[in-house]
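tool_call: predict_structure(chain=1)
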Amino acid sequence: MKLNFSFLSRSPLLRKAWRLILILPLALGLLVLTSARGGLFEITKQLEIFTTLFKELSLNYVDETSPAQLMDHAITGLLEGLDPYTVFWTEQEVSDARISKESNFASLGAGFRQFDHQWLVVEVDQNSPADQAGLRVGDRLHAINGVALAQDLDQLSQLVAASGDRAVTLEYTRENQTKKIELTPDKKAETPVLSAKLLQDKVGYIALKEFSPTIYKDTKKALFELKSSGATALILDLRNNPGGLLTEAVNLVSLFVPKGTLVTYTQSVVPEYNNTYVTQQLPADLEMPLVVLINARSASASEIVSGALQDLDRAVIIGGRSFGKGLVQRPKPLSYGTQLKVTISRYYTPSGRCIQALDYWQRDVDGEPIRTEPDQYNAFKTARGRTVYDGGGILPDKVFESSSDHTLLSSLLKSRIMIDYGTEFIKTHPFERLENFQFTQKDFEGFLDFVAAHPETIKTVSEGVFNEFTQAAEKEGLAPYVDQALESMRNSLLAAKIDLLKSKQAAVQTLVVESLLPRYFYRSGLYSYKTGHDPEIIAGVDMLKNPKAYAKILKP
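tool_result:
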């Protein structure tokens, strides 16, 4: 019998896929014969099922299919039920990441975020190339060096890096006017120390942006400079710090504890991934009273630092429960230059608390990961015998509403409402001096009115479900019969959203003020204001100037 493979001429991609399909069963068969592990046999079995399905679908589907596209869908479905940190990178994405890492990337001195398929300027650094060229928060970016920007911000990084020392041309829109500017990127290394200053009562203050490769060195330098200026106590501000390098987190803790102290450990189903991390550096100060500030946007390395210092009874933690990102990833090279970044283990604090908040392996009826309920938290003991709890993230010793999380606050941060409101606010509030800045109760009510006038900007889950119901009613022809009820429900949802924002005024007002101040006085002005008005910083100073109150918290 002669086999006819003429059907392979339909598509070059299909011919490549068929060659792989012919080879895979043989390879899989050898794998089964050479392995006695039941788990590997089950993997091999499922791979063989998938291979035969892929072959039959590719060869027999009524329309011509793309093997690459089918595989992309399959990979997406395979990873969809896992945690969001386990991702597949194509060969091009791996190459782009390598180029970005290896290139001497220069900074424009501006931050960008995408909202509704538009790239907006969300931050401008003082005296940076972007600042000197006149770029401002709220400007909408269109193109760089004549290349229209797609949805991927990596494109911006690559275009700037490719420019080297040459000027970069940006095209943007402000107040419905399109403008072009030229600026030369700055290659100076940016420090992760956002602010370092001496406050009242000899209390030093250091705010950190992220755990970059220089955070230990830069923080140590700032600490010694504060001590030489008379600081006898320290506030370490890790709020809004998303984390970064684990090694730098361990090194940062080493500034305050003896060398050889356990900071964190990881546990995995694969024994070789189980590791312990202890301090390798000599301490800078073992006695200086220490307060650490965290909030719902403090994650990963920030949680390792705050959790370790809490478990070791080395610092008082103030603020809101941290984000709860306690999963460890590792890149794994795959075939044809692709790569898998896969979650391999979980972080634990010295007392044994797991930092991870969401359980991606347990889902509710809507398919959402489950968060541990307070009545299921487990108790642990610190070095001195204090009781602390898990449940995801780090719970401060002293909790503030202004640093706590809520789903509506998260929706607020993801929206562009702060930028749009700020653009209107600065038109009618021309503050020239930082000491004159104020955000009154009337201003807060004005912000609520602005939100009410732009209800679509802040997208909540409940409104998303409501919109889906409305669309379904329209498709089924039911809309004319329920229009009045739907409009009443829409108004009720908006009123409830405004009422909830009112009830969270402390947290909402903090977010609004922190978005407004850099537009007037840059980041330096923001931190100058915060050190005199921020309730958590004020509480930290009060705690540190009262040795009895400080010691009482750290006693069991």
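agent: The two ends are 84 Å apart (CA to CA). Proceeding to next step.
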